[in-house]
Amino acid sequence: MTVKRNTIQRQLVLDAVCELASHPTAEQVYEYVVDKHPSISKATVYRNLSMLSEYGELLNIGSFHGSIHYDHNCSYHCHFICENCKQVFDISTQLPNVFDDLREMHGFEIKGHSLSFNGLCPNCST
């Protein structure tokens, strides 16, 4: 599903998440956008992040370390969150048959998923 009416503000928010490309928080997106467009409000940025994730143009990958993070990569992947440096990494992996099993064995209709791992990244574990 895509957003039917694209506004300038919505495009600014989407562009910011894509340009930051680091799983930014809503606050980081706001700071990035307001630096270039000082008249935009925090509420506008937060509302557009919510709409973009609701319509599948961004992923709300959950709350880590007290802040919701967003991802411009909407393809299937998981995340790894470092407990030390707080960085969020994309992880490409397959979970064999888990979606088929949920559908066939339990009758669930899957509309989305989020899977994340936490621990220490290679830089922090040495």
Question: Could you characterize what this model shows?
Answer:
The protein is 37% helix and 19% strand. It is of the alpha+beta class and 126 residues long. The protein folds into 2 domains: 64 residues, Orthogonal Bundle (Arc Repressor Mutant, subunit A); 42 residues, Dna Ligase, domain 1 (2-Layer Sandwich). The strands form 2 sheets. A 3-stranded mixed β-sheet has the order 4-3-5, with no helix packed on it. Strand 1 and strand 2 form a beta hairpin. Helix 1 crosses helix 2, helix 1 packs across helix 3 and helix 2 crosses helix 3.
Provide the CATH architecture of the largest domain.
Orthogonal Bundle
Shape call = flat
Residue stretches low in confidence (pLDDT < 50, at least 5 long) are: none
CATH topology of the largest domain: Arc Repressor Mutant, subunit A
Q: How many domains, in number, for the residues?
A: 2
> Biggest sheet: strands, sense, closure?
3 strands, mixed
Query: Helix count?
Result: 4
Briefly summarize what is shown.
By secondary structure, the chain is α+β, with helices and mostly antiparallel strands.
SSE map:
Layout: H1 8-20, H2 26-36, H3 42-54, E1 59-64, E2 67-71, E3 78-82, E4 88-91, H4 98-106, E5 116-119
Parallel strand pairs: 3-5
Antiparallel strand pairs: 1-2, 3-4
Helix pairs in contact: 1-2, 1-3, 2-3
